[in-house]
UniProtKB/TrEMBL annotation:
Lineage: Bacteria, Bacillati, Actinomycetota, Actinomycetes, Micromonosporales
Transmembrane segments: none
This protein's name: ABC-2 type transport system ATP-binding protein
The keyword Transport belongs to this UniProt entry's keyword annotation: yes
Lineage top rank: taxon: Bacteria
Molecular function per GO: ATP binding; ATP hydrolysis activity
Keywords tagged on the record: ATP-binding, Nucleotide-binding, Transport
Length: 230
Protein backbone atom coordinates (compact mmCIF):
# COMPACT_ATOMS: atom_id res chain seq x y z
CA UNK A 1 0.00 0.00 0.00
CA UNK A 2 1.22 3.51 -0.80
CA UNK A 3 2.35 5.70 2.04
CA UNK A 4 0.27 8.83 2.65
CA UNK A 5 3.32 11.12 2.44
CA UNK A 6 6.86 10.42 1.26
CA UNK A 7 9.40 13.10 0.51
CA UNK A 8 13.02 12.64 -0.47
CA UNK A 9 15.46 15.53 0.04
CA UNK A 10 12.77 18.04 -0.84
CA UNK A 11 14.30 21.46 -1.36
CA UNK A 12 13.03 24.95 -2.21
CA UNK A 13 15.35 27.85 -2.96
CA UNK A 14 14.31 31.45 -3.41
CA UNK A 15 17.45 33.03 -4.81
CA UNK A 16 20.08 32.80 -2.07
CA UNK A 17 17.54 31.69 0.55
CA UNK A 18 17.10 27.96 1.07
CA UNK A 19 13.54 27.99 2.46
CA UNK A 20 13.32 24.17 2.61
CA UNK A 21 16.55 22.21 2.76
CA UNK A 22 16.57 18.49 1.89
CA UNK A 23 13.49 17.55 3.86
CA UNK A 24 12.96 13.80 3.92
CA UNK A 25 9.95 12.52 5.81
CA UNK A 26 7.44 9.72 5.80
CA UNK A 27 3.92 9.80 7.17
CA UNK A 28 2.41 6.38 7.78
CA UNK A 29 -1.23 5.37 7.30
CA UNK A 30 -3.48 6.43 10.17
CA UNK A 31 -0.93 8.69 11.81
CA UNK A 32 -1.48 12.20 13.05
CA UNK A 33 1.86 13.68 12.13
CA UNK A 34 3.04 17.05 13.39
CA UNK A 35 5.31 19.40 11.52
CA UNK A 36 6.64 21.66 14.25
CA UNK A 37 8.70 24.81 13.86
CA UNK A 38 8.79 28.55 14.46
CA UNK A 39 7.62 31.24 12.01
CA UNK A 40 9.62 31.20 8.81
CA UNK A 41 10.99 27.69 9.37
CA UNK A 42 9.68 26.42 6.04
CA UNK A 43 6.50 24.60 7.09
CA UNK A 44 4.08 26.27 4.68
CA UNK A 45 6.52 26.05 1.78
CA UNK A 46 6.94 22.32 2.41
CA UNK A 47 3.19 21.71 2.59
CA UNK A 48 2.66 23.76 -0.59
CA UNK A 49 5.25 21.63 -2.37
CA UNK A 50 3.45 18.49 -1.23
CA UNK A 51 0.26 19.81 -2.79
CA UNK A 52 1.93 20.92 -6.00
CA UNK A 53 1.22 24.60 -5.28
CA UNK A 54 4.94 25.40 -5.22
CA UNK A 55 7.42 23.67 -7.51
CA UNK A 56 10.32 22.03 -5.70
CA UNK A 57 13.83 23.15 -6.64
CA UNK A 58 14.98 19.56 -6.15
CA UNK A 59 13.94 16.36 -4.43
CA UNK A 60 10.70 14.45 -4.73
CA UNK A 61 7.23 14.09 -3.22
CA UNK A 62 4.62 11.36 -3.29
CA UNK A 63 1.18 11.61 -1.74
CA UNK A 64 -0.63 8.26 -1.58
CA UNK A 65 1.83 7.06 -4.21
CA UNK A 66 1.32 9.91 -6.71
CA UNK A 67 3.67 12.76 -7.56
CA UNK A 68 2.44 16.35 -8.02
CA UNK A 69 1.20 16.87 -11.55
CA UNK A 70 0.37 13.21 -12.11
CA UNK A 71 -3.27 12.20 -12.63
CA UNK A 72 -5.06 11.54 -9.37
CA UNK A 73 -2.40 13.30 -7.28
CA UNK A 74 -4.92 15.02 -5.00
CA UNK A 75 -7.88 12.72 -5.57
CA UNK A 76 -8.01 11.53 -1.95
CA UNK A 77 -6.20 14.45 -0.34
CA UNK A 78 -7.92 17.32 1.50
CA UNK A 79 -6.08 20.48 2.50
CA UNK A 80 -6.49 23.60 4.59
CA UNK A 81 -3.52 25.70 3.61
CA UNK A 82 -4.55 29.27 2.95
CA UNK A 83 -7.52 31.40 3.92
CA UNK A 84 -10.17 29.45 2.05
CA UNK A 85 -12.14 31.46 -0.46
CA UNK A 86 -15.60 31.42 1.00
CA UNK A 87 -18.43 33.70 -0.06
CA UNK A 88 -19.26 36.01 2.85
CA UNK A 89 -22.94 36.48 2.05
CA UNK A 90 -23.70 32.79 1.52
CA UNK A 91 -24.46 30.51 4.43
CA UNK A 92 -21.94 27.92 5.52
CA UNK A 93 -24.09 25.21 3.96
CA UNK A 94 -24.48 27.05 0.64
CA UNK A 95 -20.73 27.67 0.50
CA UNK A 96 -20.14 23.95 0.86
CA UNK A 97 -22.81 23.17 -1.73
CA UNK A 98 -20.95 25.25 -4.29
CA UNK A 99 -17.65 23.54 -3.43
CA UNK A 100 -19.38 20.13 -3.51
CA UNK A 101 -20.25 20.70 -7.15
CA UNK A 102 -16.57 21.34 -7.94
CA UNK A 103 -15.60 18.27 -5.94
CA UNK A 104 -18.32 16.26 -7.73
CA UNK A 105 -19.86 15.08 -4.48
CA UNK A 106 -23.49 15.24 -3.40
CA UNK A 107 -25.64 17.14 -0.92
CA UNK A 108 -25.45 14.24 1.53
CA UNK A 109 -21.69 14.84 1.73
CA UNK A 110 -22.35 18.47 2.69
CA UNK A 111 -24.51 17.34 5.60
CA UNK A 112 -21.93 14.71 6.56
CA UNK A 113 -19.04 17.17 6.79
CA UNK A 114 -21.11 19.84 8.57
CA UNK A 115 -21.91 17.24 11.19
CA UNK A 116 -18.27 16.13 11.43
CA UNK A 117 -17.05 19.65 12.18
CA UNK A 118 -20.02 20.36 14.45
CA UNK A 119 -21.45 23.22 12.39
CA UNK A 120 -24.88 21.78 11.58
CA UNK A 121 -26.65 24.17 13.96
CA UNK A 122 -25.11 27.26 12.37
CA UNK A 123 -25.00 25.96 8.79
CA UNK A 124 -27.81 28.29 7.67
CA UNK A 125 -26.08 31.45 8.93
CA UNK A 126 -24.04 33.66 6.65
CA UNK A 127 -20.32 32.93 6.57
CA UNK A 128 -19.51 36.55 7.49
CA UNK A 129 -21.20 36.07 10.86
CA UNK A 130 -18.97 33.11 11.79
CA UNK A 131 -16.26 33.32 14.44
CA UNK A 132 -12.69 32.60 13.32
CA UNK A 133 -12.94 29.14 14.87
CA UNK A 134 -16.12 28.40 12.91
CA UNK A 135 -14.47 29.68 9.72
CA UNK A 136 -11.54 27.35 10.30
CA UNK A 137 -13.90 24.44 10.95
CA UNK A 138 -15.76 25.25 7.73
CA UNK A 139 -12.37 25.19 5.98
CA UNK A 140 -11.78 21.70 7.37
CA UNK A 141 -15.31 20.72 6.30
CA UNK A 142 -14.51 21.82 2.74
CA UNK A 143 -11.30 19.75 2.84
CA UNK A 144 -13.33 16.73 3.99
CA UNK A 145 -15.93 16.89 1.20
CA UNK A 146 -14.26 14.28 -0.98
CA UNK A 147 -13.74 11.93 1.96
CA UNK A 148 -9.92 12.20 1.90
CA UNK A 149 -7.55 9.53 3.11
CA UNK A 150 -4.98 12.22 3.83
CA UNK A 151 -5.66 15.65 5.31
CA UNK A 152 -3.00 18.37 5.21
CA UNK A 153 -3.63 21.25 7.63
CA UNK A 154 -1.39 24.31 7.79
CA UNK A 155 -1.48 25.75 11.32
CA UNK A 156 -5.17 24.92 11.78
CA UNK A 157 -5.36 26.56 15.24
CA UNK A 158 -3.55 29.75 14.25
CA UNK A 159 -5.35 32.84 15.55
CA UNK A 160 -7.99 30.90 17.45
CA UNK A 161 -8.92 31.62 21.06
CA UNK A 162 -8.43 28.82 23.64
CA UNK A 163 -11.94 27.43 23.15
CA UNK A 164 -11.57 27.50 19.35
CA UNK A 165 -8.19 25.79 19.67
CA UNK A 166 -9.63 23.08 21.90
CA UNK A 167 -12.49 22.49 19.43
CA UNK A 168 -10.08 22.23 16.50
CA UNK A 169 -7.80 19.83 18.37
CA UNK A 170 -10.76 17.65 19.32
CA UNK A 171 -11.88 17.64 15.69
CA UNK A 172 -8.43 16.59 14.45
CA UNK A 173 -8.26 13.79 17.02
CA UNK A 174 -11.72 12.62 15.96
CA UNK A 175 -10.73 12.58 12.29
CA UNK A 176 -7.61 10.60 13.20
CA UNK A 177 -9.68 8.13 15.22
CA UNK A 178 -11.98 7.73 12.19
CA UNK A 179 -8.96 6.54 10.18
CA UNK A 180 -7.92 9.67 8.28
CA UNK A 181 -4.18 10.29 8.12
CA UNK A 182 -3.42 13.87 9.14
CA UNK A 183 -0.33 15.99 8.55
CA UNK A 184 -0.52 19.29 10.40
CA UNK A 185 1.89 22.12 10.95
CA UNK A 186 2.16 24.04 14.18
CA UNK A 187 4.54 26.31 16.07
CA UNK A 188 3.20 25.07 19.41
CA UNK A 189 5.06 22.21 21.07
CA UNK A 190 2.24 21.48 23.50
CA UNK A 191 -0.22 21.32 20.65
CA UNK A 192 1.63 18.62 18.76
CA UNK A 193 2.18 16.82 22.06
CA UNK A 194 -1.56 16.80 22.63
CA UNK A 195 -2.65 15.72 19.15
CA UNK A 196 0.14 13.97 17.27
CA UNK A 197 1.61 10.47 17.18
CA UNK A 198 4.90 11.51 15.57
CA UNK A 199 6.56 14.83 14.98
CA UNK A 200 9.19 16.30 12.73
CA UNK A 201 10.84 19.48 13.98
CA UNK A 202 11.91 21.96 11.32
CA UNK A 203 14.16 24.98 11.81
CA UNK A 204 15.60 27.18 9.07
CA UNK A 205 14.37 24.76 6.43
CA UNK A 206 16.00 21.64 7.91
CA UNK A 207 14.54 18.75 9.85
CA UNK A 208 16.40 18.79 13.17
CA UNK A 209 14.52 15.98 14.91
CA UNK A 210 11.92 13.36 14.10
CA UNK A 211 10.42 11.16 16.76
CA UNK A 212 7.35 9.99 18.57
CA UNK A 213 5.72 12.56 20.78
CA UNK A 214 6.85 10.68 23.89
CA UNK A 215 10.48 10.85 22.77
CA UNK A 216 10.19 14.58 22.07
CA UNK A 217 9.93 15.44 25.73
CA UNK A 218 13.24 16.67 27.05
CA UNK A 219 14.85 16.86 23.61
CA UNK A 220 16.95 20.03 23.72
CA UNK A 221 16.85 20.47 19.94
CA UNK A 222 13.08 20.86 20.25
CA UNK A 223 13.26 23.38 23.08
CA UNK A 224 15.41 25.60 20.93
CA UNK A 225 12.92 25.87 18.08
CA UNK A 226 9.47 25.39 19.59
CA UNK A 227 7.46 27.98 21.47
CA UNK A 228 5.65 26.81 24.57
CA UNK A 229 1.88 27.16 24.66
CA UNK A 230 0.82 30.51 26.09
P1 LIG B 1 4.98 30.69 9.27
O1 LIG B 1 4.67 29.94 10.51
O2 LIG B 1 5.36 32.13 9.53
O3 LIG B 1 3.95 30.55 8.19
P2 LIG B 1 6.65 28.79 7.89
O4 LIG B 1 7.39 27.83 8.74
O5 LIG B 1 5.39 28.31 7.25
O6 LIG B 1 6.35 30.08 8.73
P3 LIG B 1 7.44 29.54 5.23
O7 LIG B 1 6.25 30.41 5.01
O8 LIG B 1 7.49 28.25 4.55
O9 LIG B 1 7.66 29.31 6.80
O10 LIG B 1 8.72 30.42 4.84
C1 LIG B 1 10.05 29.89 4.87
C2 LIG B 1 11.00 30.94 4.36
O11 LIG B 1 10.82 31.11 2.96
C3 LIG B 1 10.80 32.31 4.98
O12 LIG B 1 12.08 32.89 5.16
C4 LIG B 1 10.01 33.05 3.93
O13 LIG B 1 10.25 34.44 4.01
C5 LIG B 1 10.54 32.45 2.65
N1 LIG B 1 9.58 32.47 1.53
C6 LIG B 1 8.38 31.84 1.50
N2 LIG B 1 7.77 32.05 0.33
C7 LIG B 1 8.57 32.86 -0.41
C8 LIG B 1 8.51 33.44 -1.72
N3 LIG B 1 7.45 33.22 -2.52
N4 LIG B 1 9.53 34.19 -2.12
C9 LIG B 1 10.61 34.39 -1.33
N5 LIG B 1 10.75 33.88 -0.09
C10 LIG B 1 9.75 33.11 0.36
Amino acid sequence: MSLPVETDRLTKRYGELVAVDEVTLTVRPGEIYGFLGPNGAGKTTTLRMLLGLVRASSGSVRLLGSAPGSPGHLERVGALIEGPGFWPYLSGRDNLKVLARYAKVGASDVDRVLDLVDLTDRAGDRYRTYSLGMKQRLGVAAALLKDPRLLILDEPTNGLDPAGMADMRALIRKLGADGCTVLLSSHLLSEVQQICDRVAVIAKGRIVAESTVAELRGDVRVKVVADPLP
